[in-house]
């Protein structure tokens, strides 16, 4: 029994996505969501998941999507982020069948001031749905955690009503992930906001559940974007257990994990912390900082090792007329970054128990 007995290979949307996350909770593992910024990072992440025989989540942030479209494109109206996210989704949909694994296409944090980005992606979902009976993206995230709670929950519910008929899942955030990512800086947020209360999670649940099952919650438990010196904020995965218990105590039933939970800021967390969070029903863990670092490592080491072969197009220690083309071909040095990225995604799969899960 494995994931492929529950959902087919390919892009996972609608009921299959619920089945996938249910299966994660039942078997006690989670899937890494890797931020991708290019076809290179998408392909490397897919390659890693194929190597570990696992499902995978590929996501684009607002800035990452704009990068996908091209840094030369203006983004004053989210146009680069909209088109870049759509391009990423189509690229993933085009190549994913060759990897023969289940793939979730997701968009990352969307704050109030960039809701136009989410609107643009949802329009693309609706257009895709008309032709293919499923949304272009498997899921989106809306992040109004910096706004007041009533606005956050009400607006999230409004978006979920639009997405649910297409079978597109919505991730929301309540309580704030600390640190800095993609230009959003929460390094100075008040400590209490970094730990979501069970009552708040239940309030989200009661607002969204009547609309359907297709939502998941990123609740803050001292998690932080980025990698920092230890000691600033303490990670408290036990809070996630309390959320599950609290909601269960309110709604009854036998399900010990009534919530799909998302772990943001997975980079820099210890193996034990990750394992504990997963045991409380985390189904998705975002990894960005560590995979950015991993992508650089391979390129850095390549350059340092081959520095005498890449100073000039012709001429290296083996001879002043020796060509260097095979050293500066991007398929060699970008590939070096892909290989170290692949290793890091494989490690994320291992940390989350997502090895040989197909
Ligand atoms: Zn995040």
TrEMBL record:
Pathway: Carbohydrate degradation; glycolysis; D-glyceraldehyde 3-phosphate and glycerone phosphate from D-glucose: step 4/4. It catalyses: beta-D-fructose 1,6-bisphosphate = D-glyceraldehyde 3-phosphate + dihydroxyacetone phosphate. Its EC number is 4.1.2.13. SUPFAM superfamilies: Aldolase (SSF51569). GO terms for cellular component: cytosol. Keywords: Glycolysis, Lyase, Metal-binding, Zinc. Belongs to the class II fructose-bisphosphate aldolase family. This is Fructose-bisphosphate aldolase.
